[in-house]
Amino acid sequence: MASKLIDVREYTVRAHKRQIHTRVFNFVCKECNEATKRETFGPRPLYCETCRPPQVPKKSQPTAHKAKPRPMSYKSDTDLN
Ligand SMILES: [Zn+2]
């Protein structure tokens, strides 16, 4: 079988929607060491639903309290007369 090396260009995938499916993992929870199973979309979970409830709120993003720029009126000390 003939073979050769070709250059594969780097490319980016356009944003798109993809349907993904959950999988049920059987695993041992890292926290309570109980054999459990859990359905997740992503990788193998580490903790059972008791130790890490599914509806954990996402990281609360600390909203930086930035001072909004405000229009300021400057008074000049010098009179331009
Ligand atoms: Zn657990």
Please count the helical segments.
Answer: 0
Question: Cα distance, first to last residue?
Answer: 93 Å
Mean pLDDT, to the nearest integer, reads: 85
Query: Main sheet: which strands, in order across?
Result: 1-2
Give the overall silhouette. Answer: flat
Question: Structural class of the helix and strand makeup?
Answer: mainly beta
Bound molecules: zinc ion
**Strand composition percent:** 5-15%
Could you state the oligomeric state of the chains shown? single chain
Radius of gyration: 28 Å
**Biggest β-sheet, characterized?**
2 strands, antiparallel
Question: Roughly what percent helix?
Answer: under 10%
The secondary-structure element order is: EE
The count of strands amounts to 2
Low-confidence stretches: none
Task: Give a description of the structure.
- This protein has 81 residues and is mainly β.
- Helix content is 0%, strand content 15%.
- The chain has a two-stranded antiparallel ribbon.
- The chain binds zinc ion.
- The site of zinc ion has 8 residues, from loops.
